[in-house]
Amino acid sequence: MGPAASEESATPLVKGRRPLTIGIDVGGTNLRAGVVDAEGRVVDAVSVDTPHEAQALEDALVAAISELHGRNPVASVGLAVAGFVSREQDRVRFAPHLPWRDARVPELLEPRVGLPVFLEHDANSAAWGELYFGPASLGENVAVVAIGTGIGAALLIGGEIYRGSNGVAPELGHLPLVPGGRACPCGKRGCFERYCSGTALAATAAEMLAADPGRATILTPGGELDGAAVARAATAGDPIALAAIADFAHWLGVGLSIVADVFDPDLIVVAGGVAASAPLFLEDARRTYAGMVTGAGHRRLARIRRSELGANAALIGAAEMARRKWGLAELPVAGPAGTSARDERPDR
Ligand SMILES: [Zn+2]
User: Fold this and answer.
1) How far apart are CA 180 and CA 102, in angstroms?
2) Distance, CA 327 to ligand 1 centroid (Å)?
3) pLDDT score at 304
4) What residue ranges define each of the domains in the chain, with the CATH number in brackets?
5) d(Cα 149, Cα 199) in Å, to the nearest integer?
């Protein structure tokens, strides 16, 4: 059955009930899984640390899917992966922060969870989420820059995902911004995401603490110092945290000016976990961007907007893609309406 036929034949079944699917954001730090309804709402969720060994990662995914499937009548699973997904979307070729190397992830998971599994790059997933439920629908050519542990990026050209020749475009997070700069897990130095990510924010703050140990600050070096801690301290007015945020904003502006020089989008959406802290840095980043983009006085500058979906964009986008691909066709016909979805929204 083709996708058009399945959607057509299944449409009457979904009247009055919500086709639910699971979206999972497989990031370098956390594995976050959620049950998402047709309006893009997360109605149930689980989150665990991402295991760093392939079998353990697969087991953790099976456990998360089974737990959510046990509580919700879901039809399919969308995996948003922080790595290179093959053009055919049947395998993860390489993921700098994950143990998968040329891994046929849907094929590994489907028999274990009994559901169809759809694979997509995490930034592309976020872009789909932003396109269906967020501000990306407002642009013709849109760059989505998802900032979390690293930077994921996606391009919507005329409303379509641009994948490049190998399915890996665009890896904006690994643009070498600082020659000879911080080492990156990708093997290069000075990558955009080494200066502009949650990880980078913590690294910058740690460098500043080390360089000026006498300065009054509420930040403490060591394990507690992560991007979220720096953002909290900056909100509280901590001078070192504010300086680290200013550095982050500068590099975000520089990076976005390169994105605009190459792609000339009309809208840039800043997404990912760090987008929650956008009020701390977005205006400064805009200023740097406007000052650096080529021909700034003679072109319409891309609007830069914060994602409305925040850290859930990739999860929601992956779930929506899985729903569009399989959700409608796979929905059970019978079943009391009251069991189709839980009304609690722990993630909202
Ligand atoms: Zn890199």
Assistant:
1) 30
2) 36
3) 92
4) 3-126+311-339 (3.30.420.40), 145-307 (3.30.420.40)
5) 5
Q: What is the DSSP letter of 141?
A: E
- CA 150 to centroid of ligand 1, rounded, Å: 9
Tell how far the Cα of 45 is from the centroid of ligand 1, in angstroms.
31
Q: What is the DSSP letter of 17?
A: S
Instruction: Name the amino acid, one letter, at 157.
Output: I
Show Cβ contacts of residue 49 under 8 Å, excluding neighbours closer than 6 positions.
Answer: 29, 30, 31
pTM: 0.77
CA of 9 to the centre of ligand 1 (A): 46
Start-to-end CA distance of the chain, whole Å, equals 36
Residues 159, 144 contacting (CB under 8 angstroms) = no
Measured at the alpha carbon of residue 117, what is the angle toward residues 114 and 123, in degrees to the nearest 5?
A: 155
What's the order of all strands across the beta sheet hosting 267-271?
A: 160-161, 151-157, 141-147, 267-271, 303-306
Burial class (CB in 10 A: 0-12, 13-18, 19+), 108: middle
Which residues are CB-contacts of 233 (< 8 A; sequence separation ≥ 6)?
A: 217, 218, 219, 240, 241
- Report DSSP letters for 30-99, one per residue: EEEEEEE-TTS-EEEEEEEEPPSSHHHHHHHHHHHHHHHHHHS-EEEEEEEESSEEPTTSS-EEE-TTSS
What does the radius of gyration of the chain's CA atoms come to, in whole angstroms?
Answer: 20
- How crowded is residue 56: how many other Cβ atoms within 10 Å of its Cβ? 12
| C-alpha distances in Å from residue 179, one per residue of 68, 182, 203, 246, 249 | 45, 9, 17, 20, 19
Summarised one tens digit per residue, pLDDT across range 25-77 is 998 888 999 999 999 999 999 999 999 999 999 999 999 999 999 999 999 99
Residue ranges of alpha helices (H) inside 266-312 are 278-292
